[in-house]
Amino acid sequence: MILNEDLPLVICVPARNEAVLLPQLLSAIAGQSVGGNGVHLCLYLDDCRDGSRDMLDRMQPVLPFGATIKLGPRDTEPNAGMARHAALAMGLERLAGAEGLLFTTDADSMPHRDWIAAGRRALQEADVVAGRILRFDATRDPRQCRIERYYDRLHQYRRLVDPVPWEARDSHHFGGGANIAVRASAYRAIGGFRPLPSGEDARFLDDAARAGFRVRRDGAMAVDTSSRRDGRVAGGLADMLRALDHGEVPSMADPRGSAWQWHAQAAARRSFATINQMDVRVALGQILGLTADHVLGVARDCPNGEAFAMRIVPAPAVHDAMVSLTAAEDILGELESRWCEVAA
């Protein structure tokens, strides 16, 4: 087996009018602990009008790593999924059908010094890795910090009730395009990022899991990003922060619905190896409200237990309403305490 250290690595970045911030990204990549050998940067300039190309042409000769720059079409509407897909397509072209490691981040982000090294280690355990995303000036957004702490707790609860061997010890809830790494073979099989105006990153991770690939959330692979309010696409972090600035009260999905779903996924994962047994199919069907024949039909179409767990479990039919952040925190606290009682 080829070790990750021996595989070519391509960093794929979409950028839209980021001439001011691109130099700090290039500096962060140049400062990686692994050095520049075997690392190549693919930059997709998405309708840039700020001199990004001229600035990059001046910097490229002195970069300690190879770089390819591509100009996208002019006069296009911002579309995060389309731009990221185009950047990753450059990476696949660079690999020319061979195996390799694809990393992606944003032009306004700064990978930590051991970003590549941590990502390579993580991809020894999984097929796709979502790293931690930290904000430079998080203290100015206490409500957003509270939301992120809640989602981290919720993710930790998920892995208590449905543990998987490829998950990181230092895990987290983030699944943003600012920090994802993937094996090229897995990326090709998944079909890449979809051309969605926003949310392409979460959809990619969901598509990966439904295809049976191991998705790991690893806090050791980290990037810093900005808390700016002038985002490049609608529906991103900038919009969320502006809404909080204007007093919008955040609402969350009731965690009891998520808890039901994760317990059901754990049951499905355990059942997959013996799904040919009628009693196993019947028991799982009773949990999910499905017939034994339906359960078997889905299982036959799945390559492994991960794909089966992600596909067979429906959206929760109970506790499916939105609740306030305070209510969600309280409900999660009750769920956590019950799990601790069971574990004890």
Low-confidence stretches: none
N-to-C span:
41 Å
Radius of gyration: 21 Å
Biggest sheet overview: 8 strands, mixed
Shape, per Cα inertia axes: globular
Provide the β-strand percentage band: 15-25%
Assembly annotation: single chain
Structural class assignment: alpha/beta
Helical residue percent band: 40-55%
What structural keywords apply?
10 strands, single chain, alpha/beta, eight-stranded mixed beta sheet, 344 residues
Structure, described:
The protein has 344 residues and is an alpha/beta fold. Helix 10 crosses helix 11. The strands form two sheets. An eight-stranded mixed β-sheet has the order 3-2-1-4-7-6-8-5, sandwiched between helices. 38% of the residues are buried. 44% of the residues lie in helices and 16% in strands. Strand 1, helix 1 and strand 2 (39-45) form a beta-alpha-beta unit. The chain is globular, with a radius of gyration of 21 Å.
SSE topology sketch:
Blueprint: E1 9-15, H1 22-30, E2 39-45, H2 52-59, E3 66-71, H3 80-95, E4 101-104, E5 110-111, H4 115-122, E6 128-135, H5 142-161, E7 180-183, H6 184-190, H7 200-210, E8 215-225, H8 237-245, E9 251-253, H9 255-271, H10 278-288, H11 292-300, H12 305-312, E10 322-324, H13 325-343
Parallel strand pairs: 1-2, 1-4, 2-3, 6-8
Antiparallel strand pairs: 4-7, 5-8, 6-7, 9-10
Helix pairs in contact: 5-9, 5-13, 9-10, 9-12, 10-11
